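Q: Got a minute? One more chain.
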Amino acid sequence: MGPGRIRRNKAQRGVKLPTKEAIEMGNIFTEDKNKMELLQYLDSVKLLRISKIFQHYPDGEVLCNEFIDLMTESFNEYRIEMRDDFVQQLVDLFFRCKKTTSKRLKFEQLTAYLIEHEIS
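A: Always. Here it is, folded:
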């Protein structure tokens, strides 16, 4: 660069910089805005207990109604199953985790979803 020449940054030269939203979309550690409130009650001990319950079902897979029953039992000590939207949130969680056309959910699908979307 010669004397008297002013160096301009990319924004001044008309280079389009990525927006904050675009940068966050590429960040796999960005918090999920749709994070489910009821999952704050899950911890490693509770997940271990849930995994053992899954093992009692054929092929370690559960249907939606079975998932609701076992999760309701797992959350009963917190009294959150009394909330009006508790079952709705469990149904939502079931279908968020289930990535296949199968009507059943595996524990591995649940944990994969939790790791990918819910654990901060």
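A: Residues 54 and 60 are 5 Å apart (CA to CA).
Q: Perfect, thanks.
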